[in-house]
Amino acid sequence: MSNLPASPIAAVxxxxxxxxxxxxxxxxxxxRRQQKPPPxxxxxxxxxxxxxSGKTRAGAEWVRRLARRRISPIALVGxxxxxxxxxxxxxxxxxxxxxxxxxxxxxxxxxxxxxxxGVEASIxxxxxxxxxxxxxxxxAWCDEVGKWPHAEEAWDMLQFGLRxxxxxxxxxxxxPRPTRLIKRLVEDRHTRVVRMATQDNYRNLAPNFFDAxxxxxxxxxxxxxxxxxxxxxxxxxxxxxxxxxxxxxGGPDGxxxxxxxxxxxxxxxxxxxxxxxxxxxxxxxxxxxxxxLQGIAPHVWxxxxxxxxxxxxxxxxxxxxxxxxxxxxQVLAQVDASVPVRSVRANRGKWVRAEPAAALYxxxxxxxxxxxxxxxDELCAFGPDGKADGHSPDRVDALVWALTELVLNExxxxxxxx
Length: 418
Hints:
Layout: H1 8-13, H2 17-24, H3 27-30, E1 44-49, H4 55-68, E2 74-78, H5 81-89, H6 95-98, E3 106-108, E4 112-114, E5 120-125, E6 139-143, H7 151-161, E7 169-174, H8 180-187, E8 191-196, H9 207-217, H10 221-226, E9 246-247, E10 256-261, E11 274-281, E12 284-290, H11 298-311, E13 316-320, H12 326-335, E14 341-344, H13 350-362, E15 366-368, H14 373-381, H15 394-411
Parallel strand pairs: 1-7, 1-8, 2-5, 2-6, 6-7, 9-15, 10-13, 12-15, 13-14
Antiparallel strand pairs: 3-4, 4-5, 10-11, 11-12
Helix pairs in contact: 11-12, 13-15
């Protein structure tokens, strides 16, 4: 007969305090296969998983392993600085939590993590790719790359700095989204792609989460992405599909407009100010620039819109005035009163207004200049509820106004409230 305890509880009860702590922090004992580094010669480990599937824990434990092997310095990159600190470092499954006391790193200042053995990590935000210029790293953990603003630019800048040690490597953890960066990583022969589902981690999640959330979304398109960790190329119910985006061939040969969808307020929590520049090209349109800004004061977006007007030698600035009315025009006049401004007002829903614009794409009448990744992602995420990934589609709104002004108003009698 075996002398082993009859249950896990009995097994723990039979251990001494030191053995309990060693077992608790022994990640290889608890980790699922998908949470362990993949075998083979790879540069990027792309770990795509559903909500609560254990991505953050896998990332933190991988960095802990690097620190124990004295691989340094390490880059820790989040969508924003606050998310990098609160989730990757201080979170329930973050770096501080997964270390025993004697190995636990300490946060120095706002953006540096230091281990007792001297290993260091820099905390960076993907929203500011210029910060990647200069620093060098031996490894990197990048979290939620599917949500990064300026994703490809930030990723590329990081690659230039990932050049220390014998074999620099990086882990990218994310809920899958069909962004250009993720699709590029999936196709890269130096990437190892691992997928995890929320269900895989059911032992560590609250039972009511499965009753209230998983049961509701299981099998839906959103559930396949957010719970099953499946990379959905295009939304079935979206007006725009990625195959619609055609590269620009030459510049505009007609009118150019700067379309602005201003936010109601100008705080960090405000909607973005959509600013899109487009010009007439033959029978269609070429989209030249997405100058959208997030969480800024009115005079800031006004200066940005006027700068775009001048840079592209536009004919006018087209601005939606549903929220700000005459105040919106006044803000632009304070920056440059000589700039011609046309007001537009929407009386119909975003989806209805966007349908004719999407039809132009389907007919091949709209082309995109390089660098419009964020706009394309928002177009493909725009759903029948009038939102894009739960947020106001400010880029979409600005684009629709530009296309309406340049093409759609000529193709049918002018309709009030478009």
